[in-house]
Amino acid sequence: MKKTPYTILTAFAILLICTYSVVADSHVEESEEESNVIIDVILPLSLAFIMFSLGLGLTVTDFSLVFTEPKAFAIGITNQMIVLPIVGFGIATFFGLSGEMAVGLMILTCCPGGVTSNILTKLAKGDTALSISYTAVVSVVTVISLPLIVGFSMDHFMGEAAPDIDILGLGITMFLLTALPVMLGMSLRRFAVELTDKIEPGASKLAAGLFVIIVIAAIVSEFDTLIDNLDTLGPAVIVLNVMMLGIGWQSAIMLSLSDHRATTVAIESGIQNASVGITVGGLIMAPAAGATLSTLSLPSGVYGVLMYLVIAPFLFWRRNNSVKE
Q1: How far apart are CA 291 and CA 294, in angstroms?
Q2: Is residue 30 part of a domain?
Q3: In this model, does residue 202 exceed pLDDT 80?
Q4: Which helix (H) or strand (E) holds 206?
Q5: Is residue 101 part of a domain?
Q6: How far apart are CA 92 and CA 137, in angstroms?
């Protein structure tokens, strides 16, 4: 048993190597000059580490609320997996986003909340355990839902201009980048609690730093494109965030959840993991000549900044009106 932690860490190292190999293969048609170390190496490995750090804070019992609080869980999952993509589709259509921007927005709607939503839920005095349960389940389900929804979105918004996408291959890549790192992190906590407690704070800080770097890189890389589309992309992202926070809160209240859990449902419905969207955008479509990141990543990058401006009033409201149960 003592060797278990080292076995898990070795498995994570092997995962990183396998992830690099899979991503590199997906860009095999690119010439050496067109290869992009950020897209091919840094982003996928950074995302894998972010998800691994998330897994370090999860246990099997975090899935238990699926059964002990089925109504609360069902409301949040329905909002995140069904309502959110529908709302995103409507917003992309209403604002007349270009094909690539629209697909990028749809990629964002498929992303799980991740550790960001867990932290925001805690700050808002919501049900953190319920938030973690959402994160644990959605991080796994996204492996299937994201490739399917993105494939449909590319056909609808980009038509013949859409690059070929291997749905199965994207699903496998998503599993390697998200679900498997989470499982390895959970396994490390299961078999080496003391070691995990020591490394989790540092891993969480590093993951947060990587998230910030990814978001900044996405915006800086496509700054000219951002400026050209700011009049539509900015409002679209803000409306998506505001609408889903409102839908999450109202759906929970209408179905008789406590304010404590309604806060969690609202945050989980309205907050997505921008780093996943940025990475997936780069995996699907290579950056334009001279760019660092794909245009498909830009909506997630803009969202990664603006969501904090939108969520701040909500957090202030809930912190000042929450009653501990």
Answers
A1: 7
A2: no
A3: yes
A4: helix 193-221
A5: yes
A6: 27
Model confidence at 9, in pLDDT bands (50, 70, 90)?
low
Neighbours of 87 (CB within 10 A): 18
Cβ burial 293-315 (10 Å sphere, 16+ → b, else e): bbbbbbbbbbbbebbeebbeebb
Whole-number Å distance between alpha carbons of 138 and 313: 26
**How long, in residues, is the chain?**
325
What DSSP letter does each residue of 180-198 carry, written as one string?
A: HHHHHHHHHHHH-HHHHHH
- Beta-carbon contacts of 175 under 8 Å, excluding residues fewer than 6 positions away, are 143
According to DSSP, residue 35 is labeled: -
Quick check: is 268 in a domain? yes
How far is CA 22 from each of CA 13, 18, 36, 147, 177, rounded to the nearest angstrom? 14, 6, 15, 16, 10
The model's pLDDT over 307-316, given as tens digits with 9 standing for 90+, comes to 888 888 998 8
Q: How many domains does the chain have?
A: 1
Q: Which residue segment(s) compose the domain that 292 sits in?
A: 4-25+35-321
**Rounded distance between C-alpha atoms, residue 115 and residue 113, angstroms:** 7
Query: Domain holding 59: CATH number?
Result: 1.20.1530.20
